[in-house]
Amino acid sequence: MPREPVEIPVDLDPPGPIRGWLDLPTQDSGRAVILLAHGAGVGMHSPFMAELAEGLCAAGFPVLRFHYAYAQRMLDEGRRRPPDRRPLLETVHRQAAATLRARFPGRRLLLAGKSMGGRMSSYLVAAGEPADGLVFFGYPLHPPKRPERLRSEHFDRLEVPALFLQGTRDALCDLDLLRNALTRYAGTAHLHVVEGADHGFAVLKRSGRTADEVRSELVSQFVSWEAQSFGART
């Protein structure tokens, strides 16, 4: 599948480019385009992000991955950095969405993300960023061992269709708490539970499942949800 480097214009201090990768399907479905944001610990080049993008692209969807500013600096400098503060994360994310929207004018735009990337997607939409849907690959509902600190206060402002893909061993998302939070979601939200998966969608060896099989499940669930939510409309 073709892949193009993308430079995302963001006014940074210190200045520097924000880079992304646009994966293009050999047979474009003509339906949605996907902005796929990474989680806090790793950037867009992690095996999970790369293989997920490839799977979504193989299903016929163009996928743009991008680095947040701190992740780009980690890559350039070769050392770890903590995530940026939320305003900068949202600024970069918003510009990435604008870049993808300009590349595919008139196409449905879905904001998807792994953990923190999904959370930032939801904050943007709650604040009015145009998007047709949200896809969460492991929504971080609360910090580890802190279920009282819920990150769902904005769910009642999310009116677009959403897909939540969550593992049963996810330390950042108690499923009962998520189900309760989704009763306040303003739009239509679908929850798919991946048996035995942790926050990174890893499963135990005794499950008999491979990482490829889990990723195939995630992609399959996305394809089904997208078709059911939007039909043939472009």
How would you portray this structure in words?
This protein is α/β, with parallel strands linked by helices. It is built from six helices and eight strands. Strands 1-2-4-3-5-6-7-8 form an eight-stranded mixed β-sheet, sandwiched between helices. α1 packs across α6. It is globular.
Which features characterize this protein?
alpha/beta, eight-stranded mixed β-sheet, 234 residues
Write the layout of secondary structure elements.
Layout: E1 3-8, E2 18-23, E3 33-37, H1 47-58, E4 63-66, H2 69-77, H3 86-103, E5 109-114, H4 116-126, E6 133-137, E7 162-167, H5 175-182, E8 189-194, H6 211-230
Parallel strand pairs: 3-4, 3-5, 5-6, 6-7, 7-8
Antiparallel strand pairs: 1-2, 2-4
Helix pairs in contact: 1-6, 3-4
Brief summary of the model shown:
With 234 residues, this protein is of the alpha/beta class. It is built from 6 helices and 8 strands; from the N terminus they run βββαβααβαββαβα. Helix 1 crosses helix 6 (211-230).
Average pLDDT, rounded to a whole number, is 94
Compute the CA-based radius of gyration: 17 Å
Query: How much strand content do the residues show?
Result: 15-25%
Tally of DSSP helical segments: 6
* Distance separating the two termini: 22 Å
Strand order of the largest sheet: 1-2-4-3-5-6-7-8
For the report, how would you describe the main beta sheet?
8 strands, mixed
The number of E-state strands comes to: 8
Query: What structural class do helix, strand and pairing data support?
Result: alpha/beta
Approximate helicity band? 25-40%
User: Which stretches of 5+ consecutive residues score pLDDT under 50?
Assistant: none
The string of secondary-structure elements, in order, is EEEHEHHEHEEHEH
Shape: globular
